[in-house]
Amino acid sequence: MDLSKFTIEYIREQQSRMKDYTIVLLKKTPKIKEAGADSIVFEHARKNFALREEGLASIICPVFDHPQFGGVYIFNVDAAQTKNIMEEDPAVKAGAFLYEIYSCKSFPGDFLAK
What pTM value is reported for the model? Predict the structure, then answer.
């Protein structure tokens, strides 16, 4: 791996293009295993599709094989708006998920590889 092109000037120029985003870490609660939780999680998934379609969340990564960790979001809005969005999530309202919000920066146009 050739790192020589990544000079301090190059890095500073690239960093100047960074934009504000918000990361959400989703955590499962014991309520995720209660009767009726499947329908709540389905409504949560429907909300996720709406967030993508509206351009509010660029990345939504559910985690299915971990007992406590539920997933990661990258939102295109500030932390206050992200909190409002998450507070209206059906699974959060039902207590099946908890969340943590972190402000971050990244490069517009980055994407998940196909």
Answer: 0.89
